[in-house]
């Protein structure tokens, strides 16, 4: 966290599955003290419940099951119902088509972390246009 702050990072990612509750809380506090935003990534309801205890501003819902590597966009939709409206939600993984983007937007999810779709595209700029514009 200190290194990220020292090189000017605006935000760090904390993965709830990899951290104990106390670690998550301490790292969130430390990053905030350094002026960075904190995106906390969750994969399921249990991780979300742990995360909500520390009042995050940003929650990333990863649609990829890290045990099977299958993606299910309904993960974001179902967990969104448990998140307070003052928290920004980022849907992560499994966004491949404009229909995927439209599905998320129709459920009031308007922030996206897209990686694989751009990495696999012959022209990432065209893929960006296809998904979002």
Can you give me a brief rundown of this structure?
The chain is an alpha/beta fold.
Describe the 3D structure.
β4, α5 and β5 (111-113) form a beta-alpha-beta unit. The chain has one domain (2-132): Aldolase class I (TIM Barrel, Alpha-Beta Barrel), CATH 3.20.20.70. It is α/β, with parallel strands linked by helices. The mean pLDDT is 97. The chain is built from 7 helices and 5 strands. A 5-stranded parallel beta sheet has the order 1-2-3-4-5. The longest helix has 13 residues, at 21-33. The protein is 42% helix and 18% strand.
Structural class, from secondary structure content?
Answer: alpha/beta
Query: What oligomeric state is this?
Result: single chain
Helix-strand sequence = HEHEHEHEHEHH
Label the overall shape. Answer: globular
Largest sheet: 5 strands, parallel
CATH fold field value: TIM Barrel
Percentage of residues in DSSP E strands? 15-25%
Helix content: 40-55%
Number of domains: 1
What is the average per-residue confidence, as pLDDT, rounded to a whole number?
97
**CATH architecture, please?**
Alpha-Beta Barrel
Instruction: Report the uncertain regions.
Output: none
**Main β-sheet, spatial strand arrangement:** 1-2-3-4-5
List keywords for this structure.
single chain, 133 residues, alpha/beta, TIM Barrel, five-stranded parallel beta sheet, 5 strands
Task: Write the SSE topology.
Elements: H1 2-6, E1 11-15, H2 21-33, E2 37-42, H3 45-52, E3 58-62, H4 74-80, E4 88-92, H5 98-106, E5 111-113, H6 116-120, H7 124-132
Parallel strand pairs: 1-2, 2-3, 3-4, 4-5
């Amino acid at each position: 966290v200190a290194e990220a702050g020292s090189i000017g990072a605006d935000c760090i990612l904390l993965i709830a599955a990899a951290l104990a509750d106390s670690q998550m809380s301490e790292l969130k506090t430390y990053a905030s003290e350094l002026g960075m935003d904190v995106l906390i990534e969750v994969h399921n309801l249990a991780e979300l419940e742990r995360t909500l205890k520390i009042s995050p501003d940003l929650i990333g819902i990863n649609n990829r099951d890290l045990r099977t590597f299958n993606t299910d966009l309904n993960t974001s939709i179902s967990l969104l119902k448990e998140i307070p409206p003052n928290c920004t939600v980022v849907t992560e993984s499994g966004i491949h088509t404009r229909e995927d983007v439209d599905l998320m937007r129709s459920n009031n999810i308007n922030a996206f972390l897209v990686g694989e779709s751009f990495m696999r595209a012959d022209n990432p700029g065209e893929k960006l246009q296809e998904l979002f514009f």
